[in-house]
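Session log. Operator J.P. requested a structure for one protein chain; no other inputs attached. Running the standard single-chain path with C-alpha cell output.
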Amino acid sequence: MAIKCIAFDCDGVILDSVGVKTKAFALLVKDYPKEKQNAFVEYHLKNGGVSRYKKFAWFFENFLGRPITDEESKQWGKNFAYICYQELLDCQLIKGAEESLKYFYGKMPLYICSGAPTEEQASILKAHNLAHYFTDILGSPPDKATVLKTIVERESLTPTQVLMVGDAKTDLDAAQTVGTNFFGVGGLKVPDKYISKPDLQEFRSYVDNYNQ
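Structure written below.
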C-alpha cells in the first residue's frame, strides 16, 4: 500500500541537534555529583525521543528519592529550554532533510511527530524557515505513539499508508504500536522489514521506489 503521509521526528532527523540536547541535559545537573550527571546523560541517550519531563522525573525518583513536583518540573523545563534554545537555532540540518521536505511538500501531508514540547518545536522550525513545510507540528504531551495515531486518524488513512521517520527506539516503538511503516535515521537498528540509513540523502528515492 502506497505511502500517503510522512511523520518526521525532529531532533536527529530534521535538525542535527542530538548533541545539543545531550549537552543541555548535562548542564542541567552540573551541580550534582559526577556519577549522577553521567547516569542522567546515559539515561537520556538510551531513551531518545522520550519527553524531557519524564527524564526529569526519572532523575528525581532515582537520585533524590522522591517524585518531582509540578512546579519543579516546569522550572527544569524552562531551564532546559533556555540552555539549548540558541544552539538549536544555530544547529545544522541532517543531510538530505531540507531537500526531502521540498520534494514531498505539496505531494502528501508532512507532519512533525516529536517528543519535545509542541510550541518550542514549532518555534525552532520556524526560525530555520522549515515550519511551512508541515501540515502540523505535534509534540509532547502526549506520548509519541498517541501523536502518531492522531496523525493517522486525522488524515483518514490506514496505518500502513503513513511512514514514521525517526532516529530513536521510541520512534520505532511508536511506529510498531500504531502499525505504520518506519524509516530509521542515524544508524538506528531496526527489524529486517524496515530500513535504516545514516541520514536522509536516500530518503526521496526510497519513498518513490516504495510507491511504484
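Operator note: The mean pLDDT is 96.
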